[in-house]
Structure formats: structure tokens, C-alpha cells
Design brief:
Elements lengths: L12 H25 L4 H9 L5 H8 L6 E3 L17 E8 L2 E8 L10 H17 L3 E5 L13 H16 L4 E5 L2 E3 L1 H8 L2 E5 L4 E3 L3 H8 L5 H5 L1 H8 L4 E3 L2 H14 L23 H4 L10 H5 L9 E3 L7 E8 L2 E8 L5 H16 L4 E7 L6 H5 L2 H14 L4 E10 H6 L9 E4 L4 E3 L3 H19 L5 H18 L2 H6 L12 H12 L16
Parallel strand pairs: 3-4, 4-5, 5-7, 6-8, 7-9, 12-13, 13-14, 14-15, 14-16
Antiparallel strand pairs: 1-2, 2-3, 10-11, 11-12
């Protein structure tokens, strides 16, 4: 197969500047992740540990197969939202348990007792979507105070979808296993109650729709935690619990045995080639890519460092060159790749639509690498049918049924976001690099458009522009867009499944590709009308 070669001088001034700026962005990422991993902070973490309990990430580590990878998802959900701890009090990701790839969620009990808030509900909804689309068994590690009651208006109605999702997965034979480590009140109790299997820890786990104080208020009954909803009672009397664990480690042991007992078989074809390390090191990605999305770079430099053996069969390389399309393997998984190498023209959009159809015919998953300012504009572009070509590409993206994974390695602006499988088009997974920017348009472009519109409006009225007010308006809007378009703002809003270190790209894609192969991989046989 053709091998991609690098044309970048890693000792050049540009490469060294890229590396320095990208390393700085990675340090920012690590700082944000550290805050998420701190949970409720030292006070509540220490109190949790003094009670003899394991922290959520410790529980996950003990559940996972030894030395196996864990891909954490949406670790910064809710970041920059007032009153929210990054991660939204839920630790979640994909890992291997008893040789089976599963989706794992763990309550962060050091944050308000594991109570679920608005962003926790949104994150849980996204996790449920990942589980059902990829047909992944789910293991919940639960210790939850239920709903965050002061914010119940933002939680109550959408929160019910989580229980519905568990039962619908069960109907599709996608099992859910719940391990209960502490108090689970109200909505927190419904999750294990609706799961296929539930395990409770002796003398530590409690489940009830209403705790002792509320029972006293509602019906005047005085009752202790254990009698009302203790693990022993639910295992021997109510039957809500299927297994009684001696302690947390015993619960995790039982959980591993339950996963093994599922005898789960992935339904996708899986790897069809032996994984081969790229010929160029991943560390180079910091040097060959720009931290500033306004500075272009050749996307083939990225591909050469993430695909197997740096081998890539490019489709129509001389036609529509601003969209690079081709086939490769990543860690042994076959993929069809669409990667931006400039603005989308009519030819590149047409090429992309054809390539997506071809990959659907061969049941090949798709990987989109976004670094796009949008579609070309102007008289020549319109006369060439840019709208028609863009519609064709979006049609293909919308109706493609093979699993798609999107990686944002630069900017994502305007309709280019849609045409390259943005979040609204439901890729199975979407990850970004720290340099990522996303918006309708860049802040400079927005300010320029506002300037033109205001001056034209003033001219139509026969008045003059208040230059001071216009300058202030442009500065405010540009600043607002600049803040909202960062990778940190986007990931906080759950516009992606996580911001990753570029050097981890191949490993992250490998885990995601493995996950999508847990479900059948089938291409589309029907498409919307293509305008010719």
C-alpha cells in the first residue's frame, strides 16, 4: 500500500513554535482534568475514604481487567457552568471487564452525595445513546443521593429518559448491571431497580424511594435505614437485589463474574488486519499541526502518524484536493477517512459524497478529521453549484449508516461542521484536540459582518454610524464568540465526548473503533434525493 511521507522539517521555526504552543494547550487540558478528578475536593474525599469507601476511579480500576485501557468519556462535562464540578459528578467510559468491552459509569459520591444535576442528566443521556448505538453492556457503580432537589425543575422531566433507556436496552438484549455501594435514594434507586442484575454491599448500600426522614414526614412511620432499604433486606425480603456482597471489592468481583456470564459476543466484523505501528511517531503531531486554527497544515501529516504502517490509499487525489479521502487501517480496523485540507469546494463536496456511498457499500466505518472554515462562497462558487454539492454531501453524511467517528483537529465553522459529521449528525463518537475552535464563524469574520451590516443600514436611513458604539459592539461580540468557541466551552456543553492529547489519538480511535464493532456494521441501502 502507498506510504505517507512527511514533508515537515521538525527543526524549523514553525515546527518548534507549534510544539511549544501545543504543549502549553496540553498542560491546560491536564489542569482541567485534575480538577475533574479531584471530585468534591479534599474535605469530602477524605471523609469518603474515612468511611472505608473506595473513590469512583478506584472502583473502576478494580472492575477493569488488569492493565487494560480505559477511555474516559466527557470528563469535563459542565465545565464553566456555575456551581458545576467538571465531570458533572459522573465518571464514565469504556473499558474491558472479563474480556468484554463495556460502558462503565460511576457516581462521584464526594460531590453532593452523588446527587445528579442538570449536566449529569445530559451526560447520562449521551452515555445511554453510546450504549445503545454500539450495543455495549453497561455496568453502573452507584452511590447516589438522587436528584439535586434545588434544581429539580431542570432535572425532573428529562431525567426520566434514563430509566426508559435501561428498559429499552434490556428489551434489545443489551444488559445493565448495577453495583450499589452506598445510599441510593429516589431516582438513584430506580437505576438498580430497572437493571438486569443488581448487587448491593452489606451494611453499606441502601435503596429506598424515600429515606427515613421523608417516610416520617409522609406517613409518620419511624424506621431505620437498614430495615427500610438495607442490602440484607433487599436481597432476602424484597428481591430488589440479586446478590449480597460482603464489601466493595466483593461487589466488584461479583460484577466481573456477571459480565463473564453474559457470554457477550461482538456483532461487528472486528479487526481484519494485524495492527502495525505508524512509521512516524505520534510525538511529531505537536510539531506538524498548528495550535492556531488560522494557520493551515497538511492533514496527511496527521494521517501518517495515526494509521497503520502510515499506509493510505487515497481516493481521487487529483480531484477536489481540499478534501482528502481514502482507506486505511487503525490498529487493525478498516476505516474510510475524510479529512479537510482546506475549504470545501464543489468538487471536494462531490468527491466526499461519492466516497461515503462507496464505504457504505463495503460496510466500512468512517473517520472524519475536521479542520474546516466552511464552504467556498462568491459568484464562481455559486455558479458551480456549491449549494447543490453541499446538499449532496450533507445528504450522504445524514443517511450513511456505517459507524462514524469524528475527530476535530482544528477549526469547525459554519456548514462545514455539518458536512463533516458534526455532533448534530450523530457520529458514534466525537473527540477534539485542545486547539479546537467551533462556531458559526470566527470572531474576526463576525465583527466584519456586523460592521458591513450596520454601515449599510445607516446608509439606507441616510444617517451616519456612531463609530464608538459600533466599535464597542464589535469588540463585545467578538469577545463573546472567542470565549464560546474554545474547546473548553464546547466540551463543557457536551458538544464532544472529550478533549484528548493529540499524541493519544491512535489509542483513542482504536478504543472507539473496537466499541463500534460491538454492534453490527452495515452500510446504507437508501439515500435521500441527490440534486444533480
Amino acid at each position: 500500500m502507498p506510504v505517507l511521507r512527511s514533508a515537515v522539517d521538525l527543526r524549523s521555526e514553525t515546527a518548534l513554535a507549534n510544539e511549544s504552543a501545543n504543549r502549553e494547550s496540553i498542560q491546560t487540558l491536564l489542569g482541567h482534568l485534575a480538577k475533574a478528578q479531584a471530585g468534591g475536593g479534599p474535605k469530602y474525599t477524605d471523609r469518603h475514604i474515612r468511611r472505608g469507601k473506595l473513590l469512583p476511579r478506584q472502583r473502576i480500576d478494580l472492575l477493569l481487567d488488569r492493565d487494560s485501557p480505559f477511555l474516559e468519556l466527557m470528563p469535563l462535562a459542565g465545565m464553566h457552568v456555575s456551581g458545576q464540578v467538571p465531570g458533572a459528578a459522573v465518571v464514565a467510559g469504556i473499558g474491558w471487564v472479563s474480556g468484554t468491552q463495556v460502558l462503565i459509569t460511576a457516581s462521584e459520591a464526594t460531590v453532593q452525595g452523588g446527587a445528579i444535576g442538570e449536566w449529569g442528566v445530559k451526560k447520562s443521556d449521551r452515555l445511554a445513546q453510546i450504549a445503545v448505538e454500539n450495543e455495549l453492556p453497561v455496568v453502573h457503580l452507584i452511590e447516589s443521593a438522587g436528584a439535586d432537589l434545588p434544581n429539580q425543575a431542570e432535572i425532573f422531566v428529562p431525567g426520566g429518559a434514563g430509566f426508559r433507556a435501561i428498559t429499552q436496552r434490556s428489551a434489545r438484549r443489551i444488559p445493565t448491571i448495577s453495583l450499589v455501594f452506598g445510599s441510593c435514594t429516589a431516582g438513584g434507586a430506580y437505576i438498580p431497580g430497572m437493571s438486569d442484575y443488581s448487587v448491593m454491599v452489606k451494611d453499606a448500600a441502601y435503596m429506598y424511594l424515600a429515606g427515613p426522614p421523608l417516610v416520617k414526614m409522609a406517613i409518620g412511620e419511624d424506621i431505620a435505614d437498614e430495615a427500610l432499604g438495607g442490602a440484607a433486606m433487599h436481597t432476602a425480603v424484597s428481591g430488589v437485589s440479586d446478590f449480597l456482597a460482603e464489601d466493595e471489592r466483593d461487589a466488584l468481583r461479583i460484577g466481573r463474574e456477571l459480565v463473564a456470564g453474559l457470554r457477550w459476543t461482538a456483532k461487528g466484523p472486528g479487526r481484519d488486519a494485524t495492527p502495525v505501528t505508524p512509521r512516524l511517531p505520534a510525538s511529531d503531531l505537536l510539531s506538524v499541526t498548528s495550535s492556531d486554527v488560522r494557520q493551515p497544515f497538511d492533514v496527511r501529516e496527521v494521517l501518517a502518524r495515526i494509521v497503520d504502517d502510515s499506509s493510505f490509499v487515497e481516493f481521487k487525489p487529483s480531484y477536489g484536493p481540499t478534501l482528502v479521502c481514502g482507506q486505511a487501517h487503525i490498529d487493525g480496523f478498516a476505516v474510510g477517512i475524510l479529512a479537510n485540507n482546506g475549504i470545501l469546494f464543489t468538487e471536494s463536496a462531490n468527491k466526499g459524497a461519492q466516497f461515503i456511498q462507496l464505504m457504505n457499500q463495503s460496510d466500512t466505518p468512517l473517520l472524519f478529521l475536521q479542520n474546516i472554515t466552511g464552504f467556498m462562497v462568491g459568484e464562481a462558487a455559486e455558479r458551480s453549484g456549491i449549494i447543490k454539492a453541499g446538499a449532496k454531501l450533507i445528504n450522504a453524511v445524514s443517511n450513511s449508516t456505517v459507524p462514524a467517528i469524528t475527530l476535530m483537529v482544528g477549526g469547525s465553522y459554519g456548514a462545514g461542521n455539518y458536512a463533516m459529521m458534526g455532533r448534530a449528525y450523530q457520529p458514534r463518537f466525537l473527540f477534539t484536540w485542545p486547539n479546537h475552535k467551533i462556531a458559526v464563524m470566527g470572531p474576526e469574520q463576525l465583527a466584519g459582518v456586523i460592521d458591513i451590516v450596520k454601515r449599510q443600514a445607516a446608509a439606507r436611513r441616510g444617517t451616519t454610524v456612531n463609530e464608538e458604539q459600533l466599535t464597542m459592539m464589535k469588540q463585545m461580540l467578538a469577545g463573546k464568540v472567542a470565549h464560546e468557541s474554545t474547546a473548553w466551552s464546547a466540551t463543557g456543553r457536551l458538544w464532544d465526548d472529550g478533549v484528548i492529547d493529540p499524541r493519544d489519538t491512535r489509542a483513542v480511535l482504536s478504543m472507539a473503533l473496537s466499541a463500534v464493532h460491538s454492534a453490527p456494521v452495515r452500510g446504507a441501502s437508501a439515500w435521500g434525493t441527490f440534486r444533480h
